[in-house]
Amino acid sequence: MRTAGLSLEERLMARGVLEDVEEVCRAERVPLALVLSPLRYRSIATARHAVMRRLRERGLSYPEIGWLMGRDHTTVLAACREKRP
């Protein structure tokens, strides 16, 4: 499967985790487009971190989550280590 030129949403769909991500977005009341965006508002970052934690619970590696979310793996590591609100 070629995934190099896919958008972030297409990457999530190809990996089969888009439904999980959308579920977290609904629970956090933040649109998927904002979670995948580079915006750093607290509400968006909190939802993004919740998504990263959910993907980690599904067994994805830190680098894979980073690639899916368009972030560095150390960002994912920090998100998964932080205390949940």
Defining key terms:
85 residues, mainly alpha, Chromosomal Replication Initiator Protein Dnaa, Chain: A, globular
Structure, described:
- With 85 residues, this protein is mainly α.
- The protein has a single domain (8-80), classed as DnaA protein, C-terminal DNA-binding domain (Chromosomal Replication Initiator Protein Dnaa, Chain: A).
- It is built from 6 helices and no strands.
- The chain has helices at 8-15, 18-28, 32-35, 42-57, 62-69, 73-81.
- α2 runs antiparallel to α4 (42-57) and α5 (62-69) crosses α6.
- The protein is globular, with a radius of gyration of 12 Å.
- The mean pLDDT is 93.
Tell me the strand percentage band.
under 5%
Summarize the biggest pleated sheet.
none
> What would CATH call the class?
Mainly Alpha
Summarize the amount of helix as a percent range: 55-70%
Q: What's the CATH topology label?
A: Chromosomal Replication Initiator Protein Dnaa, Chain: A
DSSP, total strands? 0
Structural shape: globular
The CATH superfamily appears as DnaA protein, C-terminal DNA-binding domain
Determine the N-to-C terminus distance.
37 Å
Radius of gyration: 12 Å
Give the SSE order as H and E letters: HHHHHH
What is the averaged pLDDT score?
Answer: 93
Number of domains: 1
So, CATH architecture? Orthogonal Bundle
What's the helix count? 6
* Helix-strand makeup class: mainly alpha
Uncertain parts = none
Per-chain topology:
Blueprint (H helix, E strand, L loop, with lengths): L7 H8 L2 H11 L3 H4 L6 H16 L4 H8 L3 H9 L4
